Each structure stands twice: as C-alpha cells, then as structure tokens.
C-alpha cells in the first residue's frame, strides 16, 4: 500500500473464485515447453481446481507431459475438477495419456476436448472408454472432432459403462446413420445414466433422427435434454418434447418418493416393531413410493439400515472441505449469508448452487434413484 498525497492506493486483489483457476485461454502455449509452463503455474499454487487451456498448441507432446504430471503423486494432490483443452491439436497419442489420467480418478468432473484431431481408432477409443468407466467424470465434450465419425461410435458406446457420466456432447463429429445402432443400444440399456445428449451437426437424416427419438420414447427415462439440430432433417420436436417432458416429470417424482421412503424407512428398519415381521413392514413402506422399482426400494432400505449413513448430530471441529452454497451475486445486497463450519447456510433463497441440493443429488445417484426405473431389463 502506498500514499500519493492524501490518496491511498491499495494493491488489487484476485477474486476469491478465481484464485484456484489457471486460465491460459489462447495463451500461446506450445508443445512440451507450454506444458512445463502450466506445470510451473500449478506447483506454484496451493490449490488448483480448474485448468482452462483452450486455443493453444500443446499437441500430443505437450498433452503427454502435462498428464504424466497430473497422474503423478505430486499432481494427484491437486483436486482438479475441470479441464478444458479445446483446439489444442491433440490426436490419439494425447488421448491415450488423458485416458491414463482418467483411470480411477475421483476428482475430475468436466472435460472439454472440442475441435482437436481425434480419430476413431478402435484400440484408442476402447481404452479411453474403459478408463472413463473407472473415473467420476460427469461431463464430456468431444464436439467438432470431425474425424471421429462412425468408427468412434462402434467402439465407444458398446464399451461405455460409467455410473457417473451425465452429459455427453458429440455434435459435429461426422457420425451418420451407421452410428444409430450402438447409440440406441446404449441409451436403451441400464448402462446409460445420461441426462443430456447433444448430437447437433451430424448426418442422421430424417429417418435416423425419428428412429433415435422413438428409441428414447420406448427405452430411455434418464435423458431430459437432447439436441438433434442440423442433422440433414427437421427434428420431430413435438414427439421429442413430449418424451423429454415425461422423463422430467418421472425424474422429479422418483426423487420425491425416494426421499420420502428414506425418511420413513429409517425408524422402521433401525427400530423395527415386534408386532410385524420386517418383510411386512417393508411391504407397507413400498406404498409410499409406488413409482420406484423394487431394486430402487431395496437400495434405499439398504442405505437406511446402515447407522453409518446417519447425519452427524454435532458440528465437526475440523475445517469443512465439502460443497457450500454459492449465493447469487445479483442478490448479495438483499440478504445476509452465513456459512457455518458444517457447510450449512441460514437461507438458500436466491442461491445459484445450494450445497443441500448437491448432497441430495449425490445421494439419489448412490441409491440409483436419479431417474425413473421401469423395473425391467
């Protein structure tokens, strides 16, 4: 701090929300040297959660160096949740390095690889999908990798079996009607947990788009956001809108009944009545959640019967390292926010992100009640 006459000049402070970001969008980063610069930026900070590295020229060589570091013991200390590498001239060799980082990773949630030089090589794509299955990745964007084409679909979707992947972007990837069979087989199976699928700018044609929409209508209840624009056809919006509206309603009803069933099954299972056998009590409880499948109800009963899943009655003395509520900056002057040591807040009105809602969605995923299950294979 310095003084110029009576004027006090204070040094500018970085926003709290950006201190954990490394934003080198269009930063002139090239190959191995560029990767080493990124690694130096990471190691100079105590906390890094996002790497925004789009529109550089890291290529395969830089990508391999960067992800070898991120996969090392030192790199794993940084809980990076989002990586953006769009337009970096990355091809299959770089994708293999990325795959190794994804293997059993529990922190990365969002990965953006738009507009690179990925191809549909069978071995590479199967390795990538297999590693993705072991990660906790939730959002994956491969948009505008036009060389992927149909070989990508025939290798990727039959291998894909991720419990965490919720959003997939494959717009402008050069796929045609030949990709419909593996895509439909995936979204109609119990392996699909997607709520968003973006397939704009491909070549499905009118018949292909209609076939895909009908497949969602008859065999998928998880998707609530589907984009099929510019596929050499007009998207049948009436049918698609009805199907997605059905899925949204059933998703909300499933979540509501799952929470209600948990609330009442806790005391019934942990402190069972001697008047009725436990099987009779569980049968009675099932009427509280008629929309849930038998498998979903059993998952909730199993969760409710474990005392370790009960919330703590006393606040923790350790610092809270979980999700917190994020207030809306536009409403900051209208309400006072108080973040407790336990991560709670006095009020969530006007918040952009509520930590209670985050924890609720996480629990719904654990008991597989994040969307409607018709109860048949």
Describe the structure.
There is one protein chain. With 377 residues, the protein is of the alpha/beta class. It is 39% helix and 9% strand. The protein has eleven helices and twelve strands. The protein has helices spanning 31-43, 59-70, 92-102, 122-133, 149-159, 180-187, 205-219, 237-270, 278-285, 294-304, 355-366, and strands spanning 2-4, 7-9, 21-23, 50-52, 82-84, 110-112, 139-141, 167-169, 196-198, 225-227, 326-327, 351-353. An eight-stranded parallel β-sheet has the order 3-4-5-6-7-8-9-10, covered by helices on one side. A two-stranded antiparallel ribbon has the order 1-2. A two-stranded antiparallel sheet has the order 11-12. Strand 5 (82-84), helix 3 (92-102) and strand 6 (110-112) form a beta-alpha-beta unit. It is globular and about 75 Å long. The relative contact order is 0.06. Mean pLDDT is 86; it is low at 1-6, 9-17 and 334-344.
């Amino acid at each position: 701090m310095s003084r110029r006459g009576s004027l006090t000049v204070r040094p500018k402070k970085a926003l709290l929300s950006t201190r954990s970001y490394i934003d080198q969008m269009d930063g002139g980063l090239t190959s191995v040297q560029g990767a080493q610069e990124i690694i130096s930026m990471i190691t100079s900070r105590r906390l890094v959660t996002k790497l925004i590295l789009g529109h550089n020229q890291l290529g395969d060589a830089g990508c391999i160096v960067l992800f070898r570091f991120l996969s090392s013991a030192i790199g794993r200390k940084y809980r990076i949740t989002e990586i953006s590498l769009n337009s970096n001239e990355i091809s299959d060799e770089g994708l293999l390095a990325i795959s190794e980082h994804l293997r059993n990773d529990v922190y990365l949630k969002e990965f953006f690889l738009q507009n690179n030089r990925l191809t549909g090589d069978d071995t590479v794509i199967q390795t990538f999908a297999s590693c993705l299955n072991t990660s906790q990745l939730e959002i994956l964007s491969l948009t505008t990798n036009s060389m992927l084409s149909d070989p990508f679909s025939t290798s990727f979707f039959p291998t894909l079996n991720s419990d965490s992947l919720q959003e997939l972007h494959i717009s402008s990837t050069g796929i045609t009607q030949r990709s419909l069979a593996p895509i439909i087989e995936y979204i109609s199976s119990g392996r699909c947990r997607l709520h968003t699928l973006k397939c704009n700018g491909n070549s499905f044609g009118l018949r292909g788009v209609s076939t895909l929409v009908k497949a969602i209508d008859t065999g998928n209840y998880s998707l609530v956001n589907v984009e099929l624009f510019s596929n050499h056809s007009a998207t049948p919006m009436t049918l698609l809108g009805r199907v997605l509206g059905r899925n949204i309603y059933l998703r909300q009803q499933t979540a509501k009944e799952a929470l209600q069933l948990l609330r009442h099954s806790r005391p019934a299972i942990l402190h069972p009545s001697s008047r009725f056998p436990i099987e009779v009590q569980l049968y009675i409880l099932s009427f509280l959640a008629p929309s849930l499948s038998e498998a979903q109800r059993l998952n909730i009963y199993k969760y409710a019967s474990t005392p370790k899943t009960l919330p703590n009655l006393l606040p923790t003395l350790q610092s809270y390292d979980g999700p917190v509520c994020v207030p809306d900056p536009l409403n900051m002057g209208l309400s006072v926010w108080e973040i407790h040591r336990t991560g709670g807040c006095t009020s969530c009105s006007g918040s952009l992100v509520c930590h209670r809602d985050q924890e609720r969605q996480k629990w719904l995923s654990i008991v597989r009640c994040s969307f409607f299950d018709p109860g048949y294979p």
